[in-house]
Amino acid sequence: MSEQAGKEPLRIREMTIDDFPEVFHIGEQVFTAESFQSLYRTWDEYEITTLFNSDGELCLVAEAGDEILGFALGTTVTKHNSPWKYGYLVWVGVRRNIQQGGVGSGLFKEIKHRMKEQGVRMMIIDTSADNQPAINFFQKQGFGDIQEHVYMSLNLTRKHRKKTVKKP
After folding, report:
1. In a domain, 96, yes or no
2. Structural domain containing residue 48
3. pTM of the model
């Protein structure tokens, strides 16, 4: 853990607007294109502002003293004609130098508690199939039933050449 985190107890609280810059920078460090080349959802400032405006009570930060160590951003979804309310944990980020120090587990425990209070019956997450640290973390939290999905992308700014077959 960081020096500050080692001296102060961990506290989980709702994110405030003043936390946006620090949360954004932690996300930039954790969710890089090099680390997550297959991200179908990219980390940007709109991820924070959109979730904060729609589900502020599910936007949390973990701090020790005055240092933000990590964050969790979630939302809920109710499908039409379904009695079930789903919780979607969209992002969990912890400073790289303190991962595996209990910060992520603390954030998860609190967001799970808040979702249960809101009537969520099932919680879902998604991650890249090759992100073994994330898979291990979520399995430790009780997630199972791993299902792989295929996400494809098409870069519209790059010119695509049609392959032509030359006739003899």
Report:
1. yes
2. 3-140
3. 0.79
CA pair distance 148, 81, nearest whole angstrom: 26
- Is 150 contained in some domain? no
**How many whole angstroms separate alpha carbon 79 and alpha carbon 44?**
27
77 neighbors 84 (Cβ within 8 angstroms): no
| Per-residue pLDDT in tens (0 to 9) along the chain, 168 residues | 444 445 789 999 999 999 999 999 999 998 876 655 555 567 888 889 999 999 999 999 999 999 999 999 999 998 888 888 999 999 999 998 888 789 999 999 999 999 999 999 999 998 878 788 888 899 999 998 888 777 666 778 777 665 566 665
Q: Residue 52 sits in a domain of what CATH number?
A: 3.40.630.30
Strand ranges inside the chain, DSSP E: 10-14, 59-64, 67-78, 85-94, 122-124
How many residues does the structure list for the chain?
Answer: 168
Place of tokens 């930039």: 28
